[in-house]
Amino acid sequence: MLTLPIRTFTAAAQTLPPVDSAVHAFMTQYHVPGMSIAVTHHGKLVYARGYGYADTLQQTPVTVNSLFRIASVSKPITATAILKLVEAKKLSLDDTVFGKNGVLGTTYGQPPYPENLRKITIRQLLQHTAGGWTNNGTDPMFSHPQMTASALISWTITHQPLENTPGAVYAYSNFGYCVLGRVIEKVSGMSYEAYVKKAVLQPCNITNMQIGGNTLAQRKSNEVIYYGQHGEQPYIYNISRMDAHGGWIASAKDLANLLIHVDGFPAPADILTNVSVTAMTTGSTANPGYALGWAVNPYHNWWHSGSLPGTASEIIRSHHGFTWVMLCNTRTDNSFFNDLDGLLWKAVNDPKTPWPNTDLLTAH
């Protein structure tokens, strides 16, 4: 269990008791050292605040610009990048990935490939319906830490055959998004990170998001420190290799800015077309509750969460014009994630919550 200094909130120009009290109680219950949130309404950032500590030893406060690992919240970012390539007519969602006619050709592994491997499409990788490489005890992304992404893909498609016919079964796959990162590199001619910055982040005027480092010594400027609970070690994984499925670090404020540019609401203008947004938020036959990099429901809410040792994150787009971001520098058990998911719903659903009327995107 973490022992925290006596401090919960950082200094902030504004306070909002319905939000602050909920965050305070959550952090106290789950021993969260630091947390950052950002809330938008009708395209404007109406509340953003840092709580607690980025570094408990130095008592460095979290701010709205503190960078956190966002883990699997990276997946909607990768999906957006793929859709930008589709819009540029450099790619189709139904293109196959492996094999002579696939986007990646026969670069990886040892051809000839099994028939099912040659059937996998870009869309299926985005939907987690490619047929295997599930996020369980055999997840390739948490093994062979010294391998590059390319070497890991070659090893995996050779040694871990698919369990199901592509398209038939939903099975959440970090590895599938690692493959999508290489698709982006092949088609764009740029590194994954460089392409996302150019095609997705720059149009939103986001400059601080980047792929994180693996060790405490590789901590980026303004990045928080991560704190494990129940014996977890936050600095043991190859985070940089996780780029397209879990490697980004970001501030709550920047993620909120990105959200309002892909949320399907009229203002500000999205960086994706309406056709792309519809595709991005339409679930698969195998799992209607997961689309292209987003969990979705019939109420037109979209979201994604992220989890790594020392990291918890979630982004939510609600049907009634709100989006919000929640970032933590620790995690615990399932009840922690259930409570994080529900943390701000009461405030955003209450018409009496006194959200500021001004856009806080320039707040510090």
From TrEMBL:
InterPro entries in the cross-refs: AmpC-like, Beta-lactam-related, Beta-lactam/transpept-like
Domain Beta-lactamase-related, first and last residues per copy: 19-346
SUPFAM superfamilies tied to this protein: beta-lactamase/transpeptidase-like
Cross-referenced Pfam families: Beta-lactamase
Domain of life (superkingdom): Bacteria
PANTHER family: D-ALANYL-D-ALANINE CARBOXYPEPTIDASE, D-ALANYL-D-ALANINE-CARBOXYPEPTIDASE/ENDOPEPTIDASE AMPH
Protein name: Beta-lactamase family protein
Species in which this protein is naturally found: Chitinophaga hostae
